[in-house]
Amino acid sequence: FCWLESSWLGLTAAYIAIALLLAQFAFIGHDAGHGSLSRNTSMNVMFGQLSMTLITGLAFEEWIGRHRSHHKYCQDESRDPDMEVAFVVSLTEASKRSKSALGRLMTRTQPVHIWLLSFLFGHSQRLMSQASVLRRPHLFWLDATMLIAHFALWFGVPCGLLGVSVETALLAYLIPLTILGPYLAAIFWVNHIGMPVVRDAESFSFFEHQVVTSRTINNPPAYNWLFGGLNFQIEHHLFPQVQSSRLHAVQSIVKTHIARHRIDYHSVSWWQAIRLIASHLRQVAR
Q: Quick check: 87 and 102 in contact, CB under 8 A?
């Protein structure tokens, strides 16, 4: 529809719809990466490659390797890949000190510009993943093969079969991902930013590590699909192989067990999480 529609209203609706669909396919790929869609490993790989690499352009095998490291070393600044940010943001004091003069200058305005830069978040994740595959195609040969199919789907079909211009196909490829960026940032950044930093993950239990470094978001059940079920972040980190859509059923068990061990269960509303993130970024900036 976005390849053939000519009205601005129709195009806007199509781009937003594609952005939401891309998110849902990414959620499917995420669950596949954790092995929660099937007991058969090959089926999970198939679902992950089709939903994530073919549709979204994020290389599945390359991404899941980094994502599993995030789970294992959550909030460990030296080993959690999700804490490896460029000069534009400093998540910790150590990160700020390690930056160049330009990076330290940008840290001063990070509570504001981080959300402006979120429009590039989807692009950065896709490009980082694709670049990693290009550097090591022998290691990620299946990703490389599916990425060829990905570009054939997004450009070969409209331009070769439907007679759509390259410019139109390029807009349909880039604009939905630009819209998707703030959406993904709004549901992923609230999970860990501002939570305690881990210095030595091996010095305490997996259970305590995952609980104290994650934040669950409270929202009406009707909105769980917007988060892909990952608003139950503590539950997800404790039981990554549980399908995201079923994490709500795990919450009561997890909360009871955490209370028994007298560990804080970090659960706030989305707006409270946004305020906590802003406060943390301001504190690091100062």
A: yes
Residue 69, pLDDT > 90, answer yes
- Other C-beta atoms closer than 10 Å to the C-beta of 92 total 15
The angle subtended at Cα 86 by Cα 62 and Cα 237, nearest 5°, is 50
Average pLDDT, the chain: 92
Size of the chain, expressed as the number of residues it contains: 286
Q: How many other C-beta atoms can be found within 10 angstroms of the C-beta atom of residue 100?
A: 9
Query: How far, in Å, CA of 125 to CA of 61, rounded?
Result: 14
Q: What's the CA gap between 212 and 215, in Å, rounded?
A: 8
**Residue 102 pLDDT:** 83
Residue 51 has pLDDT above 90, yes or no: yes
Mean pLDDT of 12-37: 95
